[in-house]
Amino acid sequence: MKFTAAQIAGLLNGTVEGDEGAEVSQLAKIEEADGGTLTFLSNPKYTPHIYTTKASITIVNNDFVPEHTFNTTLIRVDNAYNAFSQLLEYYNQVKMNKTGIEEPVFISKSAQYGENMYLGAFSYIGENVKIGDNVKIYPNVYIGDNVTIDDNSILFTGAKIYSETVIGKSCVINSGAVIGADGFGFTPNKDGEYIKVPQTGNVILEDNVDVGPGTTIDRATLGSTLIKKGVKLDNQIQIAHNVTIGENTVIAAQTGVAGSTKIGKNCMIGGQVGIAGHIIIGDNVKIQAQSGIGRNVKDNETLQGSPALSYSDFNKSYVYFKNLPKIMERFNVVEKKLDNE
User: Which H, E and C letters describe 243-266, residue by residue?
Assistant: First the structure.
């Protein structure tokens, strides 16, 4: 599919400087672009590339002032980065605009689904499932009994949605994600053997939640594991049973959250963070990568380390830690002098 500079400028409310009829069919980095591609310039350190790029069209900020000649057609906008992101979203929508039901699939007779659904081959839809309008379910997706999926949500290839799960509007579940599997609940009997504790709750994803590939969200023992609207989960994250994650919190890859922990809204949690169970993390908290959280955290704290300290205390302590061998040498010298007195 090809687009002209004029068409793209119309989508972005931009202004064309150059050939309005210039056509593109692909996207590219400014330093790697060839003819027929669209790129953008927002970071000043990439400015030299605009004078050598082979891209047919380049999106730039309105305040860009060229210092040399160039061959690319410009589209001037208020914010080139945001405009390019907008185009990427539009491109994805066009590319993924599939509808219809492929064969073979299994759809339970009691399942209900809305208009413009796409259901990829080898997918399974269980009893009493309710699916809204414009939902896209890619091949090899499993949807268990009594699941609800609201309008405009996307489930990519190989996602597994266990029974009773509720998925809100405009959610994205990526490949290999498992939503609603049993929580890790076992109790020892008198012989020391571990007996399974039935996990009878569910998982609720509110609107606009993104779940990365390989991420698992366990069903509650009782009640619900709750992921509130706007939450973004990266790849390979473990969310245990009865966890609550507040609105617009973002969590990076390989983080694990143990059972019954409550995380507030607008938090930012780095990769490989370990969070203990049955604690409360407040709103607007920032946790640096590879930290270990074993206590309640107040609103607006920034933490680092394992066990985690406040960010400023960690940095002060690290100065001493990295110099510990030198400090010990000095200490030993002083100790010997004191012994000889």
Answer: CEECCCCEECCCCEECCCCEECCC
Q: Show Cβ contacts of residue 274 under 8 Å, excluding neighbours closer than 6 positions.
A: 255, 256, 291, 292, 293, 306
241 as an active site residue: the answer is yes
CB 177 within 8 A of CB 160: yes
pLDDT band of residue 319 (cuts 50, 70, 90) is confident
Number of domains making up the chain: 2
User: What whole-number percentage of the chain has pLDDT above 90?
Assistant: 82
* 142-143 vs 57-61, strand pairing mode: unpaired
Would you place residue 277 in the very low, low, confident or very high pLDDT band (cuts 50, 70, 90)? Answer: very high
**Do 208 and 174 meet the contact criterion of CB atoms below 8 Å apart?**
no
Q: Which of 71, 95, 119 is the last residue of a domain?
A: 95
Structural domain span for residue 118: 100-314
Residue of 49, 68, 241, 278 with catalytic role: 241
* Amino acid, res. 133: D
Residues 41, 64: Cα–Cα separation, whole Å: 9
With 0-12 / 13-18 / 19 or more C-beta atoms within 10 angstroms meaning exposed / middle / buried, residue 319 is exposed
Measured N-to-C along each axis, helices 5-12 and 80-95 cross at an angle, to the nearest 10 degrees, of 110
Residues 138 and 202 in one domain: yes
CA pair distance 336, 25, nearest whole angstrom: 76
- Tell whether the model's pLDDT for residue 113 goes beyond 90: yes
The domain that holds 295 is classified in CATH as 2.160.10.10
Q: Give me the half-sphere count of Cα atoms (radius 13 Å) on the Cβ side of residue 128.
A: 8
Task: Output the pLDDT for position 327.
Answer: 80
